[in-house]
Amino acid sequence: MDTLFFYGTLRYRPLLEIVLGRGAKTVAAQPATLHGYAVVRDGSSPFPTIRAEPGARAEGLVVEGLSENDRARLDFYEGGFAYALRPVTVHGEDGPQVAEVYFPDTEERPRGADWSFEEWAARWAEMSCHAAREVMGYYEVRSAQEVAAIFPAIRARAWAKVRARAQNHAYSPSGYTDSDVRECAHRQPYGGFYALAEYDLCYRRYDGSMSEQVERAVLVATDAVIVLPYDPARDRVLLIEQFRPGPHARNDARPWQLEPVAGRIDAGETPEATARRETVEEAGIELRGLEEVAHAYATPGCSSEFFDIYVGLTDLPDDVTGVAGLDSEAEDIRSYLFGFDEAMALVDRMAIVNAPLLVALLWLARHRERLRVAA
Fold first, then answer.
1. Residue 197: which domain range?
2. Any known ligand binding at 262?
3. What pLDDT, on the 0 to 100 scale, is given for residue 108?
4. For the purposes of burial, counting CB atoms within 10 Å of the CB of 3, is it exposed (0-12), middle (13-18) or buried (19 or more)?
5. Which residues are catalytic?
6. I need a surface site. Which of 1, 95, 202, 336 has the fewest CB within 10 A?
């Protein structure tokens, strides 16, 4: 069958175009309704699922004339999320017709609130398009199930792209922007928790000309939050220690590193929410306030990773330390207390080798008196 009914996110034409790999305007589509079914949130997520409900009506889009390649690409996109096609009768402008619909593999999923296409489009469409580009980049390279396994990381990378456009404090004296970059080719030979991207590009030189085409490789990471917990009344900080694969890969004899609390900003999450969540997960403490330290790239010459750095105001009594972390992420994290002077002594003798921690401690040295007076 070459006719499908889309009730959810694929009603959004730009997303459908990415999944099909061709202009959505070339696809014959018209509004239609599926009677006896409701489109609801999939549990607490903002994404939709469909379920049989007497008296309900699912509004959507019926698409005709889909090719075998279209179907294969759609099956790949939907297949990793436990959706499969079933025939139904939908009612469109030309009357009833049979079409296939991607149904969840079970209708026993928790029923969320009614789903709104307009609300989803306003908040999630841009991120979903970025994510779909990466997902479809794995078409005929990986299985749908393999892609589904790394989908949280794909969504987090997509959310970072959205955030990059939403807020940018950077000062560039040249005035050059992304319009002064010409991207000739883009490859992504690896994708997992991180991704590796290769670009063939030209960029504007300071004499106004365009550079010769060059190849650049980038570690595509997510945005991350950095939090230095600080107790202004006791004038002490909490640092954590854990095994780090980066120093291990560098052949460092000490791959266990002293760090601030840190964690990935998940799709749809604010940096502030991430900061509070990660501090509980990694140190078992609640924050009562956040002080902005910096919003900066970690190493822009080779990575997209972007840090939102904070000092987190909290209480740090003597018995607050321990071992924490999520078993689901194989975390084994120990926390330690350091008086401010003790922490700065580590900075002075260059015993702190974590750059975000150095930034946070040096910021704290500058603003410490203000925070202590306000405590």
1. 150-167+178-220
2. yes
3. 66
4. middle
5. 329
6. 95
